[in-house]
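Consider one such protein record:
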Amino acid sequence: MGSAVGAGRGRPALVRQSAVTPTGFEFRPLLDDGFAVVCRPAHRLAKRRSVGWTTLARATWLPQAVGSAARELLDAQMAALQIQPQMTPVLTRVSSLTVALVESLDVLALVPRSVVQPWLDRGTLVEVDVQPELPFKPLGVVMPAAGATRATLAFVISIEAHAAALRQQRGPTATRTR
């Protein structure tokens, strides 16, 4: 969860919400997130509505690294259908490389929406309308539950204000660009 939090030094850490918050700390959510299935605008599924996993299973996928939350979700969805989808022989944890590959290949990728939101906003990637939506734990800040320094409080107040402005700009939920 971050070396400062793990070491108990009381510094704030920007993280995705975990199942357990360390003793003496609190998690303060900043931004909701979800998983997104993304593709290039010319992909055959880019403009379709309410795409189900049976249809998605017939596509070629750019997988994320084994052990990542996105890969675990993709594997679980395919296992539920008892399908082994076609996957590219390349996988990455680097968002800019993932985006470049999705832009240049006729593939789908399952990624946290917050990671690819800038490319969705620019229209270089399109989010496939997967139903039902795929929730993901929110992004936020972990900070001391009591006794935070003034610098920590100022930082948290500033980052909360920035997150509120971003939420207002994007609307009440994460933007799904189609």
Notes: The two ends are 34 Å apart (CA to CA).
